[in-house]
Amino acid sequence: MIWYPYVQMKHMPAPYEITAAEGVYLYTKDAKLIDSVSSWWCAIHGYRNPVITAAIKEQADKFSHVMLGGLTHEPAKKLSDKLQSWLPGDLDYCFYSDSGSVAVEVALKMALQYFVNRGELQRTKVLSLTHAYHGDTFKAMEVGDDEDYHFVLQAYGAKKNVIHVPTEIPALEKAFAEHHAELNAFIVEPLLQGAGGMRMYDISFLQRARELCDEYGVLLIFDEVATGFGRTGHRFVADVVLPDILVLGKALTGGHIGHAVTVANHRVYDGFYDDDPAHAFMHGPTFMGNALACAAALKSIELFEQGNYMERIARIESILKREMAGFADPRIREVRVMGGCVCVEVTSPEVLSGYQEFAYARGVFSRPFLCCLYAMVPYIITEEELVRITDTMKAWFTERPLA
Ligand SMILES: *Cc1c(COP(=O)(O)O)cnc(C)c1O
Fold first, then answer.
1. Which strands form 93-97's sheet, in the order they lie side by side?
2. Interval between CA 97 and ligand 1 midpoint (Å)
3. Which of 22, 85, 214, 278 has its CA 20 to 30 A from that of 14?
4. Cα dist from 344 to 273, 349, 351, 392, whole Å
5. Ranges of H-type helices in 276-351
6. Measured between alpha carbons, how far apart are the two ends of the chain, in Å?
7. Separation of alpha carbons 298 and 290, rounded Å
8. Rounded mean pLDDT of the chain?
């Protein structure tokens, strides 16, 4: 049987069984639902996109997978060329892996080994944000800061190699002043912290982070697994502030098949590139550069470029802002909108208990977590569909007034 994620199996309500998925819609035996969360934020073109589906089929007819150990192939080469030209600055070197968590592991291992290769063995620590989420593998959990997901780490006692800072410039400056000599990297979810509570913060924090990293020689890692491909209203936050290592996942393949990439700049790559075999990067996921995933990612990027996605996202943002403007309730702490993301933060998780069923009855699939009632919609959504999502959120409060 299936062991489901993030849930007490003993008390789990039956999950909705999906029989078909097309565009923004999920279908069950008896319902048609707008997916307001894009399957954990990845299905940016909606489901069963015909262009991506055709690209996967075409590649499957040639071959589905060969390893990148001693072998290479056209889909991986083409995707790397595309990313190299498409991504900002000198983010040119693509290391593939099968998931966002692994791509984060790769980034952190790269940062550590970059300094080991230089003989700077004291640089063992990583700076990361409070409320950070970077995935569920062990190093990703360690740089994460969320007891709701990662309390199991408490079994190991206090963290030795990670320092957390809030998204406040004075705290950041203090952390750099105190710890710079032992830091190898600062890892952040730029502008929008997703699973840690849909927290939004200002670009000035990242600009200061870039300056401090430069001043102290620390590598800046942007985990854009969630924020990449337009989610914040920027194509990539890396377009505004340039990191040394960029991690992409989730929407990389338009959500059609799992894959991720860790992209390094010249400085990082050059830290490995010399005559010493021990300076090679010793990592290699079996399914890295999977041909079906690379073919899907190439088509997804093409759709993103040709479909005026940045304009679509700006339109989504303005509709979300218009629909949620002034909406208030004693049970709501704050309503936040950024790009293709809206979050209604409530005063306690109980406020959202029963919301999923309420939304289902109105033709919307939603999955609130902690105090977050949120939507991260597919970018192909129409205004009418989007308003159905926000109307459902508002109805949860207006139709169930406090006694
Ligand atoms: C989802 C997520 C990850 C983990 O990606 P997986 O593909 O689930 O392993 C890492 N970082 C961020 C910011 C994420 O949102």
1. 93-97, 260-264, 245-248, 219-223, 183-188, 125-129, 162-165
2. 12
3. 22
4. 47, 12, 11, 12
5. 291-306, 309-324
6. 43
7. 12
8. 97
Decide: 146 in ligand 1 pocket, CB within 6 A: no
Atom of ligand 1 nearest to the CA of 40: 1
Which pLDDT tens digit goes with each residue over 204-255?
Answer: 999 999 999 999 999 999 999 999 999 999 999 999 999 999 999 999 999 9
Tokens of 185: 């990297």
Distance CA 224, CA 179 (A): 25
Number of helices followed by number of strands (H, E) in the chain: 13, 16
CA-nearest residue, atom 2 of ligand 1? 135
Q: What amino acid occupies position 385?
A: E
State how far the Cα of 273 lies from the Cα of 291, in Å rounded to an integer: 26
User: Sorting pLDDT into bands at 50, 70 and 90, what band is 293?
Assistant: very high
> Is-catalytic flag, 90?
no
Given a contact cutoff of 8 angstroms between Cβ atoms, the answer to whether 210 and 161 are in contact is no
| Ligand 1: nearest atom to the Cα of 140 | 10
Provide mean pLDDT across the span 333-361. 98
Q: What are phi and psi of 279, to 5 degrees?
A: -90, 5
d(CA 285, CA 69): 10
Q: Name the pTM for this structure.
A: 0.98
Structure-token pair, residue 233:
């209203």
For residue 104, give the ligand 1 atom closest to its CA: 10
Tens-place pLDDT, residues 73-111: 999 999 999 999 999 999 999 999 999 999 999 999 999
Q: What pLDDT is attached to residue 158?
A: 87
* pLDDT at 403 (0 to 100): 74
Q: Side by side, which strands form the sheet with 332-338?
A: 332-338, 341-346, 372-376
Q: Is 250 a catalytic residue?
A: yes
